[in-house]
Amino acid sequence: MRIASIDSVREGDLLGKAIFSDDGKVLLSSGVKLTGALISRLKSLGIQALYIEDHISEGIVIDDVISVKTRIEAKKIVKNIFEKKAMDLDTQYGKVSSIVNDIVDDVLNNRNSLINLIDIKTKDDYTFSHSVNVAVIATMMGVHLGYPIDKLRKLCLGGLLHDIGKVYVPKEIINKPGKLTPAEFEEIKKHPQYGYAMVKDCIEYCPITKAIILTHHEKSNGSGYPMGLTYDKIHECSRIVSIADIYDAMTSDRVYRRRINPSEVVEYIVAMTYEWFDLRTVESFRRCIAPYPLGTYVRLSTGDIAIVSGINNIMPTRPQVRIVEPCRGQMYRNVTIDLMRELSINIVDTEA
């Protein structure tokens, strides 16, 4: 299985992973043979990439760190909260708490895995998928930081609800395809306060979860919002969710830009250590993210084009790769190279 740009997909290609609507219904099942009409329909849904099953990627299995059932149910719960503007957050707590337990359990069962699945989102379910992804990434980071299960659940809940305040931001601003005006950006920046106002009097939600909702856009150097807090005033769980939020947002296709390669986003986050983030949380982030996810194309220093076929958990920046477009002769086609062993060969770029 491999990830492919929607523009490179051809009629007759086999869909490698099912595509779901924002309410969890299957839009297209895995194994479906794509037609021109289906490809056009997927483009209209804002889908920019697909997982494809073919001979090039034969044997590459790409698993999620949470089950399909858990992911679908989590998205449905987040959608329900957003659509109802969480008027009954206290009564929703049972459902939310239950799905948080499922996410945490799934992550703990896969604690030795790296997050390498690129989530395929439609333009309509970005907010819901993003909320679930942030919860998952934050929980993985908490596991690497040694958090006990009770704290993992509080962290996960904060990640799941971190953007809840956006229900009070006009949709035309949230979904604007172009650059926001200064006034529109100021409105977006109010969503942490809107979200906090929604939960501050809900006794079921703990202080950690409330702090995450209010302060997940704060930065270590005081340049964040809404309060301009510095490192020592920001709860570590908020700092975790901040990184998870930025990573998933930057690696997602949006109405106004294409996704950025995970390796570039990891590099960006590492570069902002001390200025925006602290070293402890950045290191936990690096330990749970595969910068070169399975099924992605890379260009090697040899000039060969390869596909990532295996992840080295000890050093994820040096995965196993399968050469698919050799420049050194056909004898290299389908040869697998372990970059942990072949230290003279490097990844120099990620191919679209």
Could you list some keywords that capture this structure?
352 residues; alpha+beta; Molybdopterin biosynthesis moea protein, domain 2; Hypothetical protein af1432; 3 domains; five-stranded antiparallel sheet; 12 helices; 10 strands; globular
Overall description:
This protein is an alpha+beta fold and 352 residues long. It has 3 domains: 2-53, Molybdopterin biosynthesis moea protein, domain 2 (Alpha-Beta Complex), CATH 3.90.105; 68-286, Hypothetical protein af1432 (Orthogonal Bundle), CATH 1.10.3210; 297-350. Helix content is 40%, strand content 11%. The protein has 12 helices and 10 strands. The strands form 3 sheets. Strands 9-8-7-6-10 form a 5-stranded antiparallel β-sheet, with no helix packed on it. The protein has a 3-stranded antiparallel β-sheet with strand order 1-5-2, with no helix packed on it. The chain has a two-stranded antiparallel sheet with strand order 3-4. Helix 2 packs across helix 4, helix 4 (126-144) packs across helix 10 (236-250) and helix 9 packs across helix 10. The chain is globular. The model has no long low-confidence stretch (mean pLDDT 92).
Question: Topology, pairings included?
Answer:
Layout: E1 2-5, E2 14-15, E3 19-20, E4 26-28, H1 36-44, E5 49-53, H2 68-83, H3 89-109, H4 126-144, H5 149-161, H6 171-174, H7 182-188, H8 191-199, H9 207-215, H10 236-250, H11 262-271, H12 279-286, E6 297-300, E7 305-310, E8 320-325, E9 336-338, E10 347-350
Antiparallel strand pairs: 1-5, 2-5, 3-4, 6-7, 6-10, 7-8, 8-9
Helix pairs in contact: 2-3, 2-4, 3-4, 3-5, 4-5, 4-10, 5-9, 8-9, 9-10, 10-11
